[in-house]
UniProtKB/TrEMBL annotation:
Listed InterPro entries: dCTP_Pyrophosphatase, DCTPP
GO biological process, one term: nucleoside triphosphate catabolic process
Alphabetized CDD domains for the sequence: NTP-PPase_RS21-C6_like
Top-rank lineage group of the source organism: Bacteria
Protein name per UniProt: Nucleotide pyrophosphohydrolase
Amino acid sequence: MSDPFKQLRDALDQFATERDWDQFHSPKNLAMALTVEAAELQECFQWLTEAQSRELDEQQLAAVRDEIADVQLYLIRLAGKLDVDIEAACRAKMEKNVEKYPADQVKGSAKKYTHYQD
């Protein structure tokens, strides 16, 4: 695990311990909280056009930053509970995606990988 992820994980552990919240932070509960935060991130873009979603004003961008942080912090907390190295998991998933989505077959297409399998 890279140092920034470890530092954040340790800070989150301390934050929860100081508040006696560890009792509530089961993997199930953290996964559920993560989906709530992801929905709050999605809400920042609700009703915006594609163009508007690319041209956020400072207030909108601040809200998006906060929600991205909430999502990431819950991911780090969940990963810590399950002893998952986020950086290693992401690299492994990227390798899987290279295999699932061969550039010569999927370039410029939004189709799911299952549409490219023989």
